[in-house]
Design goal:
8-stranded mixed beta sheet, single chain, lipoate synthase activity, 11 helices, Elp3/MiaA/NifB-like_rSAM, globular, TIM Barrel, alpha/beta
Length: about 290
C-alpha cells in the first residue's frame, strides 16, 4: 500500500460558506462534480462560493475505474428545467466564471450536446457577465454535436485526456486517446476564438517521458491550457494509486509545459480540472482572441 504524503493534506474549509453553497444546490436540486466525484478540494471551492455543475446526471453511461461517479443506475431522461435551475444558481452565487460538466450520455443521439447548449443560453440570460467553461465528454467522436456546443460560444472548451495512451485500456476503457486529441483539434478548427483546455492525472504508473509526450501531443492538437494533478483512489473498488508524485515533479512538468507554449499550466498534487478555473478570465485579458 502506498502511504499518502503530507503534501496532500487540504485546508479546513470555512463551513459557514460551504453550508451556503450546499443550501443553494439542494434548493435548486443540482448536482456538482465536486460531490459526485469526491473531489478533495470541495471544502476550499465551496467556501469560496464556487462549484462545478454536473448536468444530465448523476448516472453515467460509462464505467471508468478511476471515477467515483455512479454508473450502475439507469440514466434518466433529460430534465427540461435543469438549464433554468443551473442559471439561477449561477445568479445567486454571483459567479464570475462557471464550469459546466456532464456525465457521459452515450445513450442520447447527440451525446447531450443540446442540453449543454440550453444551459449555456440560460446562464447567458441570467448572468451575462459570467464567463462559461464547458468540460465535455468525447461525444463518441460526433463532431456535429461538438459544433453545436461551440455555436453557443462558451469561452472555454475543456476535455480531459486523463492519462497516457499506454494506460487507456485499463484507466479509460471506453475512451480513445486519439479521439480525445482530435476533439481538441476540431474545436480549434470550428471555433478559433475558443480557449481549449485539457487535464491529466498522474500516479497510475506513467513515466515522466510518457507524461511529456502527452503534453507535446496536446500542444500539437492546439490545446491552450493544461491541468496536471495527482490521482487519488476514491474507494477500494477503484484503481489503486501506484505513486504519489512529488511537488518538485509537478513543478518540472509545469516548466516543460510553459516551454511548449501552453498559455497556462496548472500542475500540483491537488490540481483538478476545474480548480481555480476562474483564473482563465485573467488569461483572456492577457491573450485576447
Amino acid at each position: 500500500m502506498v502511504v499518502k504524503p503530507d503534501w496532500l493534506r487540504v485546508k479546513a474549509p470555512q463551513w459557514e460558506r460551504v453550508g451556503s453553497v450546499k443550501e443553494i444546490l439542494r434548493d435548486l436540486a443540482l448536482n456538482t462534480v465536486c460531490e459526485e466525484a469526491s473531489c478533495p478540494n470541495i471544502g476550499e471551492c465551496f467556501s469560496h462560493g464556487t462549484a462545478t455543475f454536473l448536468i444530465m446526471g448523476p448516472a453515467c453511461t460509462r464505467a471508468c475505474p478511476y471515477c467515483d461517479i455512479d454508473f450502475e443506475k439507469k440514466p434518466q431522461p433529460l430534465d427540461p428545467t435543469e438549464p433554468a435551475r443551473l442559471a439561477e444558481a449561477v445568479r445567486r452565487m454571483k459567479l464570475n466564471h462557471v464550469v459546466i460538466t456532464s456525465v457521459n450520455r452515450d445513450d442520447l443521439p447527440d451525446e447531450g450536446a443540446s442540453q449543454f447548449v440550453r444551459c449555456i443560453q440560460a446562464v447567458r440570460t441570467a448572468s451575462p457577465q459570467t464567463t462559461i467553461e464547458v468540460l465535455i465528454p468525447d461525444l463518441c467522436g460526433n463532431w456535429e454535436a461538438l459544433a453545436l456546443i461551440l455555436q453557443a460560444q462558451p469561452e472555454v472548451l475543456n476535455h480531459n485526456t486523463e492519462t497516457i495512451p499506454r494506460l487507456y485500456r485499463r484507466v479509460r476503457p471506453q475512451g480513445d486517446y486519439g479521439r480525445s486529441l482530435e476533439l481538441l483539434h476540431q474545436t480549434r478548427q470550428i471555433s478559433p476564438a475558443t480557449y481549449t483546455k485539457s487535464g491529466i492525472m498522474v500516479g497510475l504508473g506513467e513515466t515522466d517521458e510518457e507524461v511529456r509526450q502527452v503534453m507535446e501531443d496536446l500542444r500539437e492538437a492546439s490545446c491552450d491550457i493544461l491541468t496536471i494533478g495527482q490521482y487519488l483512489q476514491p474507494s477500494q473498488k477503484h484503481l489503486g494509486v501506484q505513486e504519489f508524485v512529488t511537488p518538485g515533479q509537478f513543478d518540472a512538468w509545469r516548466e516543460f509545459g510553459e516551454s511548449l507554449g501552453f498559455l497556462q499550466v496548472v500542475s500540483s498534487p491537488l490540481t483538478r480540472s476545474s480548480y481555480h478555473a476562474e483564473q482563465v478570465r485573467d488569461l483572456m485579458q492577457e491573450y485576447p482572441r
